[in-house]
Amino acid sequence: MMSNDKxxxxxxxxxVNYHTRLGPVSAVNDVSFDIYRGEILGLVGESGCGKSTLGxxxxxxxxxxxxxxxxxxxxxxxxxxxxxxxRLRDFxxxxxxxxxxxxxxxxxxxxxxxxxxxxxIQVHEPKTVLENAQERVRxxxxxxxxxxxxxxxxxxxxxxxxxxxxxxGLGLILNADLIIADExxxxxxVIVEAKLVDQLREIRExxxxxxxxxxxxxxxxxxxxxxxxxxxxxxxxELGDITNIFDNPLHPYTIGLLSSVPxxxxxxxxxxxxxxxxxxxxTHPPSGCRFHPRCPEAMPLCSRFCPNMEEVVPGRWVHCxxxxxxxxxxxxxxxxxx
Length: 338
Ligand SMILES: Nc1ncnc2c1ncn2[C@@H]1O[C@H](COP(=O)(O)OP(=O)(O)OP(=O)(O)O)[C@@H](O)[C@H]1O
Ligand SMILES: [Mg+2]
Hints:
By secondary structure, the chain is of the alpha/beta class. Helix content is 28%, strand content 24%. The protein contains 9 helices and 12 strands. It has an 8-stranded mixed sheet with strand order 6-7-8-3-9-10-12-11, with helices on both faces. Magnesium ion (MG) binds at residues 51-52, 182.
């Protein structure tokens, strides 16, 4: 994977387990990918595939019973795994912030909108004078399309869409480099959702920050993202530019996932890829490639060995034996399409 000043976050071989009575749940397994500066990266996959766990891991917000069991997270050149608690608190407020489906869980019900934003500034930039903080809050809130009189409202007095904008504001007020939006638009009605999506795009343009959009809604990702990472059973199976992946998905799971979206036409694959079966129980994930029991193209080696995440064409990473070599596989079967 590339390593230059284009890259904001490098995630390498990251694994997260939930420790339960029934044994460890392998929610994120050996995941490697980059997030570029200023990009919108969509992280998609079925419910329970590990999207939220991965998002929280990037902020090191993994709490017991979960644990990051291995891997590295390099944020702007710094190893997040080595941060102490003080450093982590600063990192979370200043560099990276996360918005969830229900903003009420993150906002303080007895704090007014402006108090949230001013407190964020005062905690992370204690030298800022109150008047300057207030001025910054007013400017930002205007750019987010929230009327100034709303600053004195409590979170419960706001609509869902407006609450999400306050959450976005909490990231923007300190110039974060990355906002993680975890199903942030899911509970909104379609019109409010469309507005928020437009706004996220504008924010990216204006503030130049990266946004990781976590969702099971591929249509949303199609509208907003530059690149897409497809996750299945705790692993990223395919990653690349959104148009390339939509035009020519390579991983059999991506093909199945996209052919289930009515607005995306995949003529070649329509019949072949009616995905059968259920996503696996991550307490006992399948051996080898975790998708092999449901894969219409599975080969004998797929149940025995786990493929690597390989760059099969420039900018496109695929986690599948169809596209990589192995001594147990006929060379001639490798399918690399340019
Ligand atoms: N507290 C927990 N204890 C045990 N297992 C958990 C816990 N939280 C999540 N898991 C398991 O970890 C896996 C990943 O969960 P996660 O919430 O990250 O998935 P997700 O892709 O965000 O799903 P959704 O789309 O439903 O939000 C799932 O198999 C889930 O059952
Ligand atoms: Mg989730």
